[in-house]
Amino acid sequence: MEEKVNFAVVGIFVLVLGAGIIGGVLWFSSGESYRRVYDVYQTYMQESVAGLNLNAPVRYRGVEVGRVQKIVLAPENVEQVQLTLAIERGTPVKADTVAVLQTQGLTGLAYVELTGGGRDSPSLQKQAGEEYPVIKAAPSLMTRLDSAITGLLTNLNRASENFNALMDEDNRRAVKNTLKDIEVLSRTLAARSAVIDTSLTNAARTMENTARLSDELPQLAQRVQRSADAFDHMANELARAGASASRALDGTQQFTSETLPEVHQLVMELRGLTSSLQRVSGELEQNPSALLYGKPAAKRGPGE
User: Which of 91, 117, 139 is the endpoint of a domain?
Assistant: First the structure.
């Protein structure tokens, strides 16, 4: 006689066994995480956190160190998003550590990346009035790219408007004329390329001569210095000669002032003597006997 099987008991047994197996697997796989101790931090993002979910990973230089516990708008500022982070105790969260929102691959899922933090920087501490220590936030790569592209497009738009305002009909005509002049100039330069080559050769030769002259300048400067020294010596000699001449001139002036009157008197007397000799000579020519008999007596006039 066959025994009846209670399928309800079998089903319950199977469910209990399955639950036990699943619980054991989960316990063995995550038991270590349950034994970890986490510290709670907060950070405030000023950009959209689209793609960031609860329990999203928190990584420190690429190493997963925690999870995102809470995502809410900041109570004091609705333009910010408050993130509550559970980070493993012992993670070197420093005063200069920065939280940045990153995107993982092509999935679009976001996570929080912690960067910075010098080795000698102090650990981040809770400040007065704060529930948890606050990690500074920095804009993400996408935000920086968006700001840069927006600024670039704004500048391009402004440059385009300025260019359109600048290139009116008159300016376009002036540019066209300038291009024509440049074309004429280029043809002229091409036609006179031989003359230009000669001029460049002469300029090169002139530069060489100038370089050679610059090499000779020190010797020329020495010669000029020696000439200046000789001229200085000659000037000193001339000064001494002038002093001697001045003394001689003073003596000459003294001699002239004392002797010239006597010489003048002597000359006058010599002139008188010469006149007397000329008169005596004339009388002797007329009457040589006067030398023996003396001067004849003068004839008396009528009535004497």
Answer: 139
Residue 119 has phi, psi (to 5 degrees) of: -65, -35
Q: Do 133 and 154 share a structural domain?
A: no
Cα distance between residue 30 and residue 186, in whole Å: 81
pLDDT in tens, 149-191: 988 888 988 888 887 777 777 777 888 888 888 988 888 888 8
Would residue 19 count as lying in a domain?
no
Torsion, CA 57, CA 60, CA 61, CA 64, rounded to 10: -40
Total structural domains in the chain? 2
- Structure pTM? 0.44
